[in-house]
Structures are given as structure tokens and as C-alpha cells.
Amino acid sequence: MRTKPQDLRRVGVSRRQFVASAAAAAIGASARGATPESHTVLRAGDLTAVIGGNAVHEEHRAGYNGVWSLRHAKGARSVFVPTVAGLNLEHIVTGEHLEDSRTFFEPRNSPMTLVRLTDTEAELHQPLTPAFYVESWTRFRVDAPHYLDMDFRCRAHRDVFPRGYLSLFWASYMNAPADKSVYFLGGLDAQKGMWTQFCTQWHNDQSTVRHRDDRFEMTFPTGGRDALFKSLSRFRFDRPFFYGHFDDLVWIVMFDRSEGIRFTHSPSGGGENTEFMTTNPAWDFQFLIQKPEVMKDYGFKVRTVLRPKCSRDDILAEFNRWKPQP
């Protein structure tokens, strides 16, 4: 997908700057002795993951990055919609420029470079984006028997945060699971630490769950387009993980912190699935940075678990065993 010259002028970036930014990614990869690729396959234990940038390849559509496919040895299909992706860096949110679709989906429309580091590890690099000037690195690693880890780091190159925050948003387009819900420990104000089922009825309606102690209010211009990150649920989560069922498997998404993390759900964000006569839900999350500083690195870690269905005690044990390194 091409960036129009008028879009670049509107956000104060020349075509030369934008092209140079894209070239920098390839040069950086070459300096590390690696060849940039559109996608690569990582295998470990029971998992096979296809990691890729925003490129088009066969049935995979342009403009979707992250994990193109994730399969378990005992599963019949990828947990993610084959034409798009999971753990897909979707939005950079400052409260501004939401009406222009290219800027609204800036991480999907900006160049990315993929470097395969080992047989089990790869990294996506996105040079500073044309509207929000955010550079990011996302490293993926698969580990036996059923783990896919994501380590994200970003850096703002300019102060373009008039509302005092920077939020990044990831979408996982699930491949028509029979149960569209996600589950977490939390609940309403008086329901602390309870197993909660969360399944929104409509896209962009009560879609985002904050941590129990998260009181930060993201502000936006009056009116404007609806968005999943704008609409807040009454539910709160108490521990930073959620899970969902997929065929005979369970997919668990765990975070190394609660601060700045928000869960988001859509019953239909991944479009329709004609074979299964249903919609593809989106099981998403956000990383919110308050008062971001220019040229300072921010990041977090995610561990996802794809394994045969198990008890909630086993799910909680997976979370309690995980001790990510700083």
C-alpha cells in the first residue's frame, strides 16, 4: 500500500524522509549480517509460527504484521485468520489524527523489516512512522513445549503527544472459534479475583477492560470515529492475563506487568468466516504510556501459550511459573 505525497506533507514528512526511513531498516539488517525477509517460519516443541511484516504473500494480505500463522501439532488449523495476523501492531494512539485511515492504521501502513535471528527467534523493526515518529522493535521467540514470546520496545523521536499519552494497540484476529469469549481474573467493582467471561455484543461497544488500579482517562477531540480503545467496559482485571478457547486448544496471553496494559475484545473484528458461518472475533490488547519522553525506550513482554485445553488451575499455574527477565 502506497503513501500519498499529500498525506506525508500533511503530517510534516517529505517523501524523501519516508523512503529513507524504510531504507534504514534494510541497512540495519544488513549490518547485523542478516538478509531481510517478508516472513519466516519458527518451530519449537508443538508450535509452528509464521512471523512477518506488512508484506503481501500468497493468501496473506498486505498491511498485517506480527504472527501470520500459529499452529499446534494437535490442531487442525491456525488460530489466526489466514489472510491477516495475530499480535498485529495495529494503532499508534495519541488522541489525534483518528479520521485519516492511513494514520489510524499507521503501523500497518508503514515499512517494516523482518530479520530471522535463529531457528526459533525473529525480529520486526519499524523505523519512525510518518505521523507519530515512533520507532519500534518486536522480537518473537518460540520455546518448547508450547510458548510464543513477544518482547516489544519503542522509542518516540518527536514530541507529538498534546494529550499527554502514547498508546499502542495490537489486534489478534481469531479464526472463527466456537466460543468468542475471553476469560480473566477480575470482574465488577465488588467482584475482585473472580473468573470473568468477557464477550462484547457489538464492535466498538464496551470493548476495553482496564486494570483495577488504572484510572487514566485517554482524551479525544469531540465527536470523531468510534474505536475499540475509546469504549470502556465496567469490568476490571486483577491479574495481567487472559485466555480463550480454540477448538480443542486454549490460547493464553500473559503480560509481564499490569501498569499500562488494557485488554480489548470485538466479536467481529476479524470479519466473517463463510465456512463456519460465523464472525472472527478479535482478542486484542493495548500498552499505554503516560507522559512519554522523546528518545526514551519503553517496552513490555508478552508470553502466549497454545496448548490442549486444561483446567483453570493449570492456566493459573502457567502464569505463576512465568518469570520474564527484565
What is the fold-level CATH name, i.e. the topology?
Beta-galactosidase, Chain A, domain 5
Helix content: 10-25%
State the secondary-structure class: mainly beta
Number of strands: 20
Beta-strand percent range: 35-45%
Q: Secondary-structure element order, as H and E?
A: HHEEEEHHEEEEEEEEEEEEEEEEH
| Rg computed from alpha carbons, rounded to a whole number of angstroms | 19 Å
> Please, how many helices?
5
What is the end-to-end distance? Answer: 36 Å
Number of domains: 1
- Second rung of CATH, namely the architecture: Distorted Sandwich
Task: Just give the CATH class.
Answer: Mainly Beta
**Major sheet size, sense and barrel closure:** 8 strands, mixed
Shape type: globular
Mean pLDDT: 90
Could you list the spans in which at least 5 consecutive residues all have pLDDT below 50? 1-35
Please give the order of strands in the largest beta sheet.
Answer: 4-9-19-16-12-13-10-11
Q: Can you describe this structure?
A:
With 326 residues, the protein is mainly β. It has one domain (5-321): Beta-galactosidase, Chain A, domain 5. It is 13% helix and 40% strand. It is built from 5 helices and 20 strands. It has helices at 5-10, 15-31, 101-104, 106-109, 312-321, and strands at residues 39-44, 47-52, 66-72, 88-93, 113-118, 121-126, 134-143, 147-156, 165-171, 182-187, 194-198, 208-211, 232-237, 241-246, 249-255, 261-266, 272-273, 278-279, 282-290, 297-308. An 8-stranded mixed sheet has the order 4-9-19-16-12-13-10-11. Strands 5-6-7-8-20-15-14 form a 7-stranded antiparallel sheet. A hairpin with a 2-residue loop joins strand 1 and strand 2. It starts with a helix and ends in a 5-residue tail after the last helix. The model is unreliable at 1-35 (pLDDT under 50).
